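Why does residue order matter? Because the sequence determines the fold. Keep that principle in mind as you read this record.
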Amino acid sequence: MQEEINERNQPINCLASMKILLTGSTGYIGRRLLPVLVQAGHFVVCPVRDKRRFDFEDFDTDFLSHVEVLEVDFTVAESLKKLPPDIDAAYYFLHSLTSGSREFQKIERQTATLFATYIKTTLAKQVIYLGGISNDSNLSKHLTSRLGVESILSSAGVPVTVLRSAIIIGSGGSSFEIIRDLVEKLPVMIAPKWLQSRCQPIAVANVLDYLVGVLANEKAYNGTFDIGGADVLTYKQMLLQFAEARGLRRSIVTVPVLTIRLSSLWLYLVTNTSYQLARNLVDSMKNEVICKDNSIDEVVHVKRLTYRESLARTFLKISQQQVVSSWKDSIPDPSFSHTFLGQAEVPKHGCFIDRRSFVFDRNPEEVLQNIWQIGGARGWYYGNWMWKIRGFLDKLVGGVGLRRGRRSAIDLKSGDSLDFWRVLHADKSDRRLLLFAEMKLPGDAWLEFKILENEGQQTLVQTATFRPLGVWGRVYWYLVLPFHGFIFTGMGRNLIDFEKKCG
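Structure:
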C-alpha cells in the first residue's frame, strides 16, 4: 500500500501519454471529450452500462486501439471490479438529472460513493469533476446534490479538481435546446419571474478547453474553480439575443404569479424536456449562476467566448449535421437502460402484429435514405397532424411527446431518441431500422422498417408490434387499429415515393 501511495505522489508529466478513466463517455460532455483525449496521445478506458451504446462505428481502427470499453454499472459494487487499478487520472461525469428519477440525489450519492471506494485502490493522481456553479444560498436540489458529490469524491484521498460550470451552450445541450424551443415556438412569452435571474453561459468548446487544461496540472490539484463565458446575462436577455441571432422578433412578459410547479409544467408543455428535468431546471434557475472569481485563469488560459459567439458556433454545427451528442439520447428510465438494446429481436408470442409490404422498383438506397430521415423536422410521411395529436396527448399524461425530435436529420444510431421512439437497431448494411416506443402505453410497442430483395424484386416491409399489458392493453390496440389502415399504408407508400434527397 505504501508503494502505491508513493507512486501516486509522483508528479504526472502532462506531455506524456496517460491512461485515463473517462466515465460518461456516451454522454453529452464525455462523448465530445473522448476524441480530444485520444488525439492528445492518451489511452482512454470507457466504462459504459452497455457496450452497444458506444459509438464504435464513428471511429477508425487506429483510434479504437487507444480505447478500452468496459461494461460497468456504477450502482453495483461488484461491477466496479472490472475497472483497472493502473490509471493515471479519471474524469467523473456521472449524474442522474436527465434520468427523470425523483431519487436522483440518492442515485448520485450511491454512484459517487462506489466510485470513491474504487479510485482509492488505484494509482490515480487526479480526479476531475464537472459540477454546477453553486455560490448562492438556498441552493436547489440539483445544485445541492452536485455539492454532495464533490464532498464524496474528495473523501477518497486522491487529489480532486472541481470545475463548476455555468449553463453550457452547445448543439444537443439541454439548456440550448430549451432556449431554442422557447424562442422558435413562442412569438410572445408569458414567462415566470426566474427569467430575471442572472447567469454566465459558457460555450461547450470552452468547457472542453478547461477539462483538458486542468488534466495533470498540479496547480489544479485539490482546487475548486468556477467556469463561465465572457458575458453575464439574465435568462430573458439570453432568449432575446437568441431570437436576434435567428432573425426572429420575440416579446417576453414576466409575471410573478407562476410558482415553481406551474413554471415547470409550462416549460414541460412548451419544450422537449421531461417534467422532472423541467422541475429541476426551474428549481435551479432561482439561483444566480455566476462565477465567484476568475482563479481558473491562473491555472488554464482560455479565450472565453461570448454568448453570441457560442450561438454562432452552435448554429454552424447544426447546419453541418455535426451534432455529436445530445442530452435527449440519455435513457429516461434507469431500469430500462441495461436492456433496451437487447430488445432488438422483437417478441412474437403474446403480441399483436400489423405487417404491411410494399413492392417497389425505385433504387433501394434512396428508399433507405428516406427511412433514415423519418421523424424530426421531416415528420412521418403521412398524417403528420395525427402524429402531432398523439404526441400532444402523450405530453398530457407525462410522456415525452414528439418534441424531442432527433439528434441528426440524416443519421441514426442505436440508442438515439427519435420523437417518442428510441432507436434499437439502425444498420444500413442489413437495411433495417427498429424503433421502440417510449410514449405512455398500456404495453410495449415496436415499429420496424426493413427492405428485402427476392429475385431482383425490392420490398419494403413495415411491421408494427404491440405486446399488451392486461385488458387495457388489448382495448388500446383495437382502438388504434382502424387508424393503422390509412396511417401506416400512407407512410409506407410515401417512404417509397418521397423525392427529396438526403442533404
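The chain has two domains: 2-319, 339-497.
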